Amino acid sequence: MFSKVGILVPSQIKALRLTSPTPTQKELAAEIGTHQSRISMLEQPGAANVTLETLAWIASVHKVGLLVKFVSHSEMLHWENSYSQDTFNVTRLDADEEFLNPGIADISTLHVDSSEDDLYDVPMLSSRAREVVTVVARTNVPTPESYSQFSLVGNG
């Protein structure tokens, strides 16, 4: 098992770099203020004893999350067998719409079944969300029943 971790972790580190804005070891080293040899060592199986602190640093540099968890052997084997460095791709923070806009299913307008067409701007509760949902609501005080039928209209 240790040999698999010693191969798969460096492979993921390399895949992160290859899909980053700084795809060469030299560029990445310059960007983060380390030596190219350190990047090379982290990407070579068995060349470095990579700690959780180092993995967290690598995740931070690449603006991705780090998940370390205990799983069954069958789950681990399934992941190992399906892993490919060529297809390994992690959504970076600046492109992670689900993280940046929690609760928003790429909507721009929420249409509430109503007899009136008064518009209200309702800011999203999350400070990370940058969109405002426009609600078409009744002019009287709405009840939960009045909001039971609605449709979502996507952007564009």
Q: In sequence order, what are the helices and strands, one letter per element?
A: HHHHHHEEEE
Number of strands: 4
Distance, first to last CA: 49 Å
Strand content: 5-15%
**Strand order in space, largest sheet:** 2-3-1-4
Q: What is the CATH class of the largest domain?
A: Mainly Alpha
**Tally of distinct domains:** 2
- State the CATH architecture of the largest domain: Orthogonal Bundle
Write a brief structural summary.
This protein is α+β, with helices and mostly antiparallel strands and 156 residues long. It is built from six helices and four strands. The chain has helices at residues 2-18, 25-32, 36-43, 52-61, 73-82, 97-100, and strands spanning 107-112, 118-123, 132-137, 150-154.
Notable traits:
alpha+beta; 15% strand; globular; four-stranded mixed β-sheet; 156 residues; 2 domains
Commentary on this structure:
It contains six helices and four strands, in the order ααααααββββ. With 156 residues, it is α+β, with helices and mostly antiparallel strands. The chain folds into two domains: 2-94, 434 Repressor (Amino-terminal Domain) (Orthogonal Bundle); 98-154, no CATH class. A four-stranded mixed beta sheet has the order 2-3-1-4, with no helix packed on it. Residues 105-156 have low confidence and may be disordered.
Topology:
Layout: H1 2-18, H2 25-32, H3 36-43, H4 52-61, H5 73-82, H6 97-100, E1 107-112, E2 118-123, E3 132-137, E4 150-154
Parallel strand pairs: 1-3
Antiparallel strand pairs: 1-4, 2-3
